[in-house]
Design brief:
Strand order of the largest sheet of chain A: 4-5-6-9-11-12-13-14
CATH superfamily of chain A: Glycosidases
Number of strands of chain A: 14
Oligomer: homotrimer
Bound molecules: magnesium ion
Largest interface: A-C, 27 and 19 residues
Structural class of chain A: alpha/beta
Distance between the termini of chain A: 47 Å
Number of helices of chain A: 12
């Protein structure tokens, strides 16, 4: 229904390019009740690893298949790409899409599913953010998902679109945003994705830096086939003991909807990169892997890098850090049981 | 009531310039019931031609009185200037106003009324558009009308301000916009124009690329003295037969308000520039000119150019295309009967 | 609760810098009922002077302690810094903060309180403004107050944050803004400031270029500890006689809330810079100083400069103009009585 008013000889090649990347060697993932299932009905629990921003990895010279092979070697079945708005703008849409296409291709070849994560932190309503690299606008965020939806339509590897990494008003320093307003913004993004007939599962987070999902009880997102997200770092909501907080702060959601903890991780207080709210020890690892296994909740460790914190390895021989050792073992064990 | 806080010696010449262009040799057009009338009470039905963007015409070397003379020769009594937001920004306000001033001067001399059309396509609420040349913001759109209102105040030739060419959410790909939200945006623009005591008649379009006016029945724009717009290209809403669609999709509006089809046109499937939704033949021309004549509806053919499609002529000797022949004859016949 | 995901060795020095400027030699100002009081309970009525934009003064070579000494010599106990959005952007945050830090330091040394004023004129809702130097966005305005709140936290000299100089829709030329919408924008800004534990008193203005406070009667700003503002220039609302207008247009507010006239001033019709709405004579000075003294209303004369109008002095020997003579005498008399 679009009318051509551009000069007659001008053609658009976007259709050709966007369909070329669809490589459907992985089974399509769908939402069924409170679970993720493959198109042929197998229940999937995802456990995997976050990487640094693809732009950053490319600059460091590590955006290559060997890196994805190592993620696979650690036992992951999913990888999360945190696309920082500042990196997206710096590299530009065309060049950044090439990075994503490469990462998705290697993931497909290795049998890893992919989460594309719009990695902002702050208040999308007032467009105020925690720091400069998280700066974006509603318009840019909507356009990002329009671009992703069009570009990865029909690609089963890109199974998840995490709409906005960590919503927060930072105690009011970033202005106000009600759950109702946040819900409306998410529904707008989901509508844009689905109007492109892209079946990626939208992942929706709550406030307090993607920790708090309590409003979902009374007022869930008005869209079927989505999943929720929490980032339950060890020091959130007062920290240990976690058992009496996790179920009511976010875990209850898993009774009704698929739930994915797209960032978990810890750092010993003595380690480089230790900071609030991640300081803890292996007891956190035990608690979170046990609770999620019992509830069928998926998780993704933060972060498979030597610099971003808390880090999983200390050098590019992939020498595991303390949490690296913990999560490598956990990934290999839990995912081999599936 | 404006306070001067600028350096004392700084003066503004804008008042001098803006009044200089007011050339009132054409009679002022007003809304009376469901009709356009001249200030002395003569009913007017407008039938004319769209041109390409004035910026584009100027670049091609055709923004000259001879071009307007040809429009007049074809029988038009009105000409529509589609100002693309991208062209407006590229050329800049001052230089673009010079183009408009020239076009308005030649139109005045030839007795042609002018529609200034903010030629965007998309969703002004989310600020998402069909393609780059249609990109704008609410702020830029409001400022455009503030500028037009101030600049053309008292100019009878510039009888119409078409507030936004083709509103559409593209099936949700551009996000959502309710009729109520669209109505509010139009009322804001109308308020800005009229606060400048500019009496140009605001033209308001509906969704589906300015095709659908059904919400006007229950919930019209809250402003007197306006007119509505539809762009009923031949393939809209399933195409032929049109007779059972046009009256209910948009034609009913003409019983109560003035109505102007600011874009109509067709292209044989064999012609250059043929595309959805314009492919049809002379039977479309017969149907639309007959229906509009019966209902007193004004119309403007798209597009008096050799490149933009569907085109009216094939070279700058103004050799008519198939639809060019059709509309040249129609304009000369219908407008001579008035 | 902020997570560090930046490279491990990157540190932020902002905490060091922002606390360095807190010099608490002046007593903290608070709101108590309809009055300003010092932290030890002394009622304060502020009477002082506006300066030109600090950026402008610095460019002219007059942003120096001697200039502030002269303000003190004229009897002021407060000085208002009108930060124009265009100047803020041009100089940049870091450099502009240095100007403010210098001005605040000299003010502290001389015992002058400071109002930081976001000096825009227009409609913050539609983001349409009176002229280019007042252009800003909601986002930029919110970020400005976020920056001010963080930077001047704990600084008693910076006792007032005037959130938006002169709100106006210019009779609709700048679109619409209801009092409810304006109230919401102010409450958002107040929330941002207070989330940073900054105790500066927010100053809130009404429409008609900060003249009209009538909506406060039925629908005050929903925040404790704030004060209201009016700019009752002599020709507002029809001009003289003022006695039957001031109490109902804005003066009534002082019965319930602290009120500060952050701009008053006049110019003889014969003087350079005379313009609507400031043309008047000493009778205006007598009326406004008497009425404010009776009601305990604070005021700040516009403007302690040789170029901005109406000006207080005619050269940089600080030779008083007609209103300069008037206000120098008024400041010295009224403030010495306190
Ligand atoms: Mg929060
Ligand atoms: Mg995070
Ligand atoms: Mg069109
Ligand atoms: Mg106003
Ligand atoms: Mg003022």
């Amino acid at each position: 229904m679009l009318k051509l008013k551009t000069p007659l000889l001008l053609l658009t090649f976007s259709v050709l390019f966007s369909s070329a990347i669809a490589q459907n060697s992985l089974k399509k993932i769908k939402v069924q009740g409170n679970q993720f299932v493959t198109e042929d009905g197998k229940v999937m629990v995802f456990r995997g690893l976050n990487v640094a921003d693809p732009d950053n990895l490319h600059t460091k010279g590590h955006w290559e298949k060997a890196f994805f092979q190592e993620i696979k070697n650690w036992g992951a079945n999913i990888v999360r790409f945190p696309v920082h708005p500042s990196a997206w703008r710096k590299r530009g849409k065309t060049e950044y899409l090439k990075l994503l296409d490469d990462g998705v291709k290697w993931s497909t070849e290795l049998g890893l599913y992919v989460i594309i994560d719009w990695h902002s932190i702050g208040n999308l309503r007032t467009e105020m953010y925690q720091s400069d690299n998280y700066e974006t606008t509603q318009k840019e965020t909507f356009e990002f998902w329009r671009t992703m939806a069009k570009h990865f339509k029909g690609n089963n590897t890109v199974a998840f679109f995490e709409l906005f990494n960590e919503p927060t008003v930072a105690g009011g320093q970033l202005g106000t945003c009600s759950w109702e307003q946040w819900k409306t913004l998410n529904e707008e993004m989901i509508g844009i994705v689905r109007a492109h007939s892209n079946d990626a599962i939208p992942l929706v987070a709550g406030f307090n830096w993607a920790y708090d999902l309590t409003p979902v009880k009374e007022n869930p997102i008005n869209a079927a086939g989505i999943a929720y997200v929490s980032h339950p770092y060890p020091m959130k909501n007062g920290g240990k003991p976690w058992e009496n907080k996790w179920p009511t702060d976010w875990g209850f959601v898993a009774k009704k909807y698929p739930l994915m903890l797209t960032e978990i991780g810890f750092s010993g207080a003595e380690e480089v990169g230790a900071h609030v709210p991640v300081i803890s020890d292996e007891s956190y690892g035990d608690a979170i892997t046990k609770y999620t296994a019992e509830q069928g909740i998926s998780w993704v460790g933060w972060v498979f890098d030597d610099r971003w914190a808390p880090r999983m390895f200390s050098d590019w021989n992939f020498t595991p850090t303390r949490q690296g050792k913990y999560f490598k073992k956990a990934l290999l064990e839990y995912n081999s049981n599936k």
